Amino acid sequence: MTRRFTALATLAVVCAGAELVAGRGMSPAVAWEVLSGGGDLTERHILFQLRLPRMLVALCAGACLAVAGLVLQSALRNPLAGPEVTGVTPGAVLGAVTATALGLAGWDSPLAVVLAACAGGCAGAALLWLLAGRGRGDPAQTAVHGVLVSAVLGGLTAMVLLVEPGELGSVVQWLVGTTEGRVWQHWHLLWPWALGWGVAAWLLAGPLTLLRCGDDIALAAGLSAPRARTLALLCAVALTAGAVAAVGALGFVGLLVPHLAVAVFGADLRVSLPGAALVGAVVVCGADAAAQLSSRLAAGVLDSGRFTLPVGALTACLGAVLLLVVVRRAPSRSF
Length: 335
Prior knowledge:
Blueprint: H1 2-22, H2 28-35, H3 41-76, H4 88-101, H5 110-132, H6 139-163, H7 168-176, H8 184-203, H9 205-213, H10 215-220, H11 225-247, H12 253-265, H13 269-302, H14 311-329
Helix pairs in contact: 1-3, 1-13, 3-8, 3-9, 3-11, 3-12, 3-13, 4-5, 4-6, 4-7, 4-11, 5-6, 5-11, 8-11, 12-13, 13-14
């Protein structure tokens, strides 16, 4: 297990280095010169004020979404549960967009965005919980209700856009997901939030393991299943809200990365939760580096200096393909 963590940590470092040099205006030689203390003011500004915080935010957001997804799948005993299909991510997007449209938040006030996104995520999760009713233990029913809730919240987001069409840019950024323009303010707000709620999720590893075995077994072990599930959902919503407020709705990260983490680190959540955080960080950071490199190559081919591929578009496409492969190979998989 130590070797696996070491290998993933090494891969995370490689992805982080690739992201620093994948975009425009920074070659590996220039980046190394700046890191060695050289370079001119423009190169130092690009690396330390633009590239470095963007890379750190991508790592942290990926870890948040992966841990939130694993917590949701364990608490709901549903392999299809994830922030994207349980109303949490669409609710967080709706909260952030609504607060921005009302003038209560904006990219210049990330704390207000986080609070609004957290409130929206809680509302989305609560709506799913009410609609699922007695069928909460059925993975198929929960997935169907999750798609319904996500569609409703997406429609409400579109209504906000109709009322405030000037927020189109913000809506697109939150709906697709991007790390473009992230600065140190986003990082300083995200990492303590992620660390606090991530530790809280790890402390719930024992109760979550019992919940995965069923409410009857949890009750026999002396665990209050409703209380433990509520705390777990609160952690998942908070982690998702922090990630959404920082980078928007990155598709399929919270749904598929937990499956990869469990496959690599096993079913012991005391190990797989930190493992999921590391895998999520690698996936998002690597995808962002690939998106920047693709944008750079496409801009040269299309002769357009403004072409930018958001990382959320890349994770959504790759995640959809991977989900189809998983479903076809294991159509009856469940906890």
